[in-house]
Amino acid sequence: MKGWRLGLLLVLLSLLAGVNLRLPDWHDRLFRPPLEGRTQLDVFLDLLGEMRTFAARMIYVRGDLYFHVMEGQGISWRDAPDILPIYRISTLLDPHMEEAYEVAAFDLTLNFDRPTEGLEFLDEGLRYNPDSVRLYLTRAFLLFQLKRYEEVVPTAGRALQLAEEHLDALNAVRLLAHSQNRAGNLRDEVHALRIWLSLEPGDTYPITRLQELGLKPVGFSEEELDRMQQEPPPRP
To answer: Domain with 112 in it: what CATH number?
Structure first.
């Protein structure tokens, strides 16, 4: 009986996910009339949208609970790949659920050693959420962990452009600075360090790194940057 109920639930969720693919957010953006002019169909579509969002959240919470139970029992993520479909269903029901894209991409890339799938899944999330600082930062971090430093730069740069929160901007510029350092792009690294210092004037790393490059934390000239580029000091 329990298996029958679970099967029925999965069928219903699959149907709801299919309906969601037919019900993108353009309904709200283009066709949603003022409150006094709504038809029964408008109300039904609104209700259906709320139902699928609620279902997506509930499934995601169950996945999170599953993770904490496994962690408490000492089970590694690598021994539980069946958690990934939970996040897939969540994103099918609600493609704006950024945290599901973030967690699944992280697990696929780092825990299950499937970086191509992880980054593709994250790119799907960015297609649905093109202004998501959270997803851009996640993508930049994963690329950094994969040592694909040149690819980090445009992704972290986009996160920095979109960032409205101080911590998001700081995380983006840190990824930029460290990636430019490892890629050997010293001039760009210095510019990132200057932005870093403008956000966190008391942070010791950018100060120390600039001193290693023979530059003062503030007030250095483009001529000094040219000299540094021609005779680069060793990277730490």
So the answer is: 1.25.40
**Chain segment 99-143, per-residue pLDDT in tens:** 889 988 998 999 889 999 999 999 999 999 999 999 999 999 999
216 CB-side CA count, 13 A: 5
CA atoms within 13 A on the CB side of 81: 8
Burial class (CB in 10 A: 0-12, 13-18, 19+), 68: exposed
Cβ pair 108, 117 in contact under 8 A: yes
What distance in Å separates the CA atoms of residue 183 and residue 177, rounded to the nearest whole number? 10
Integer Rg of the chain from CA: 23
Question: Which pTM was predicted?
Answer: 0.69
Q: How many domains does the chain have?
A: 2
pLDDT in tens, 192-217: 999 999 999 888 899 899 888 887 66
Q: Per the domain annotation, does 228 fall within a domain?
A: yes
